[in-house]
Design brief:
Elements (H helix, E strand, L loop, with lengths): L2 H26 L6 H25 L6 H35 L6 H24 L3 E3 L5 E3 L3 H21 L6 H23 L5 H41 L2 H16 L5 H20 L6 E2 H19 L3 E7 L6 E2 L4 H13 L6 E9 L3 E8 L7 H6 L4 H14 L2 E6 L5 E8 L2
Parallel strand pairs: 4-6
Antiparallel strand pairs: 1-2, 3-5, 6-7, 7-9, 8-9
Helix pairs in contact: 1-2, 1-7, 2-3, 2-7, 3-4, 4-5, 5-6, 6-7, 8-9, 9-10, 10-11
Length: 428
């Protein structure tokens, strides 16, 4: 091998080792795992394949033996295919990051990228038979064909679309994540431009590996910061409990006194006091839980809350309980009650005639679901992204779901079409 080839192979082997370390750290770290983490781990393994097979392409270049010819052709095909597949997988990672920031992804943009990648992959397969992108001479040396510019152009189009998406959503994502996402567009593009004039080097592959290592670094920093924020929030909750510890007992004693003063024949009043006492006790006890509670515990809290609201709004509030999934799994405390309250207060009671609140539990092979839906006034979900940290209630639920049980909150709504809030808990 030439000196340049030795340097190329050495850099790619070192790069593959770094990617392996990143993949292992993603697997064994205590940072809460989500779908984005799993996708990034797969990206790292694919990057290892890209770099190792590119090294093999250099090692077997010029080897005109049967094994050398097979390995050179196989390695070059896998390298080109890995670049295309990584472009697609990065799109899935990008989509997950947007969802984590409560941003509805532009599906058209991601579909265009996938279509371009499929076209590129098909042309790559064709090239194995007619040398459309590249060919090998009798000495088993790789040569670009004139049509290789199509491959570069399709890849460049995908990266430019990604760069446009990063620019579009830059206001809603933190700076570290923005820089890491944009690196995937800039590093390979810069390397591709250089490579078009510096024949003999695989700078694009090294650029891709470097960009993904930066993505990994930003991913771990972001997750660690969020865990720290969540831990601080839990500590603040416990501190607030200590400060107000004496107050619940005083309230319970007052409610017991009020109940004793009610005429025994007034069953509605007695029941209302009992329901409110049970609701208040459930809420205050929830503060003691730093992690998760049984779903049945949450169901009890919302049933007491709904009873009081039903008494308050009478026929304007209809409630349907559809508990299809009867598993008693764990969720963060006070997850469901704020969603029920939002549906009643901001959805149903904004209509003069009121409406219907439906609570539906079900599951599939991957998740438990709790749907809280209403046929109220609805709202524009784009407001969730623009409100950001100001939307404390919903954001708090989403953060606790993510970091306490790997769950997710999905809110679907439109003006005049009601609202559907879905809590998703992974099945373990």
């Amino acid at each position: 091998m030439s000196s340049i080839s030795i340097v190329q192979v050495s850099l790619e082997i070192w790069g593959s080792m770094f990617c392996l370390i990143c993949a292992v750290l993603l697997t064994i770290s205590n940072v809460p795992h989500r779908r984005s983490t799993t996708i990034l781990c797969n990206i790292m393994y694919m990057s290892i394949m890209l770099l190792l097979f590119d090294s093999l392409a250099y090692i077997f270049r010029g080897d005109d033996s049967y094994v050398g010819m097979i390995m050179t052709r196989l390695s070059n095909f896998i390298v080109f295919a890995s670049q295309i597949i990584l472009t697609v997988i990065f799109g899935f990672y990008f989509e997950e990051i947007l969802k984590e920031y409560d941003i509805k992804p532009s599906r058209l943009s991601f579909r265009i990228i996938r279509i371009l990648c499929v076209i590129n992959l098909l042309l790559l397969v064709v090239s194995q038979f007619n040398g459309f992108y590249y060919y090998f001479d009798v000495g088993n040396y790789y040569h670009r064909n004139d049509y290789i510019i199509i491959c570069f152009s399709l890849s460049l189009a995908c990266l430019l679309i990604y760069a446009n998406l990063v620019f579009r959503y830059r206001k809603y994502i933190n700076d570290i994540t923005i820089l890491s996402l944009i690196s995937f567009s800039f590093f390979p593009v810069i390397m591709a431009i250089i490579q078009m004039f510096a024949y003999g080097l695989s700078l694009v592959n090294l650029g891709i590996a470097v960009s993904f290592i930066l993505v990994f670094t930003a991913h771990m920093i972001d997750r660690a910061n969020l865990v720290r924020v969540q831990s601080q929030a839990l500590q603040n909750t416990q501190n607030r409990l200590l400060i107000s510890q004496i107050q619940p007992h005083f309230i319970y004693n007052c409610l017991a006194l009020i109940r004793s003063l009610i005429n025994p024949d007034n069953e509605d009043a007695l029941t209302a006091v009992d329901e409110f006492s049970a609701y208040l006790r459930g809420v205050t006890n929830s503060i003691n839980y730093s992690s998760t509670v049984d779903l049945d515990y949450e169901k009890d809290i919302i049933s007491h809350y709904i009873y009081m609201e039903k008494k308050r709004f009478d026929e304007r509030l209809n409630v349907i309980y559809d508990y299809e999934d009867t598993d008693n799994y764990r969720i963060p405390p006070m997850t469901l009650q704020p969603l029920v309250e939002n549906s009643i207060k901001h959805g149903l009671m904004e209509k003069l005639e009121g409406g219907t609140l439906t609570i539906h539990t079900y599951k599939d092979n991957a998740f438990h679901y709790v749907d809280i839906s209403d046929d109220g006034v609805g709202f524009d979900t784009a407001m969730l992204a623009t409100l950001g940290k100001q939307h404390v209630g919903v954001n708090n639920i989403k953060q606790r779901l993510k970091y306490l049980c790997g769950g997710e909150l999905v809110i679907e709504s439109a003006p005049g079409s009601g609202t559907r809030s879905t809590v998703k808990i992974p099945i373990k």
